Amino acid sequence: MTIETAHRDLVTALLSEFGEGEARQMARIVFEDVFSITNFLRKEPFTESQLKKLEMIQTRLLAHEPVQYVVGITYFFGLKFKVSPAVLIPRPETEELVDWILTDHSRKKKVDVLDIGTGSGCIPVSLKAEAPDYRVTGFDVSPEALVVAGENARKNGVEVDFQLFDILNKTNWDTLSKYEIIVSNPPYIPLREKKLMADNVLKHEPGIALFVADEDPLLFYRTIIEFAKTHLVEDGWLYFETNEYNITEVEELFVKAGFLDIEKRKDLQGKERMVKARCGAG
């Protein structure tokens, strides 16, 4: 079997479950990231060991496991990140949030930044890679996620202080210092909306990073705003990723807490997905 035939056969198999564009995109990712093959028309032999590996990958993809988990990596803000079911797959909208922070603070050098719910570490690693003088910390409640995040920092040659920390446990807040910037993409999907989620997300991505109790869907936003009131320096900034359905309620939480200069921002699809606010004297 040649490389060309193996690639064609994978695309054909994937067409039984996916549209042509998605099937070809997944095949491209597999051949480039797993086999380091970028020319899919090559006539060189596709070895027996490569074929066995490809068959296992094909089985997982046909079971609708996200291709990023199957190959074990994804790309974010121009960097390569390891991903596993312990962490969410970074989304393009989060890249826009990182870019917003960097643009807002482009003139600053030494800035203390905290990412709450860091997951794969995509936010702090990207910030540190773009702004090496930033002092960047990432909190997560999942030890497994922090292992992945730490590996991503090392692989991308940056130093990030990752810590196991539950932001909902207020008894530990007084052990922490203050920051110029706090950023978070917290869980915000009510459990009742599980039935609306795609199966590949529900079956494979970590629910702890997605879902929040029906009776208090703004729990993390409200708690992080309360935390930021005492752990942002004066005129420090809090940035959130949200969805288009709860951003107005998050904005109201900012107003109620006395934050200033509240600004919402749309993503590239025109949906309001990000909001920031400044912490005044308090």
In short, what is this structure?
The chain has helices spanning 3-14, 20-33, 48-62, 67-71, 92-104, 122-130, 143-155, 199-204, 219-231, 247-256; strands at 73-76, 79-82, 112-116, 135-140, 161-164, 179-184, 189-190, 211-212, 232-241, 260-266, 272-278. The protein is α/β, with parallel strands linked by helices.
Topology diagram in text:
Elements: H1 3-14, H2 20-33, H3 48-62, H4 67-71, E1 73-76, E2 79-82, H5 92-104, E3 112-116, H6 122-130, E4 135-140, H7 143-155, E5 161-164, E6 179-184, E7 189-190, H8 199-204, E8 211-212, H9 219-231, E9 232-241, H10 247-256, E10 260-266, E11 272-278
Parallel strand pairs: 3-4, 3-6, 4-5, 6-9, 7-8
Antiparallel strand pairs: 1-2, 9-11, 10-11
Helix pairs in contact: 1-2, 1-3, 5-6
Descriptive account of the structure:
- By secondary structure, this protein is of the alpha/beta class.
- It folds into two domains: 3-63, no CATH class; 84-278, Rossmann fold (3-Layer(aba) Sandwich), CATH 3.40.50.
- The protein has ten helices and eleven strands.
- It has helices spanning 3-14, 20-33, 48-62, 67-71, 92-104, 122-130, 143-155, 199-204, 219-231, 247-256, and strands at 73-76, 79-82, 112-116, 135-140, 161-164, 179-184, 189-190, 211-212, 232-241, 260-266, 272-278.
- Strands 5-4-3-6-9-11-10 form a seven-stranded mixed β-sheet, sandwiched between helices. A two-stranded antiparallel ribbon has the order 1-2. A two-stranded parallel ribbon has the order 7-8.
- Helix 1 (3-14) packs across helix 2 (20-33), helix 1 (3-14) runs parallel beside helix 3 and helix 5 (92-104) packs parallel to helix 6.
- It is elongated and about 70 Å long.
- It starts with a helix and ends with a strand.
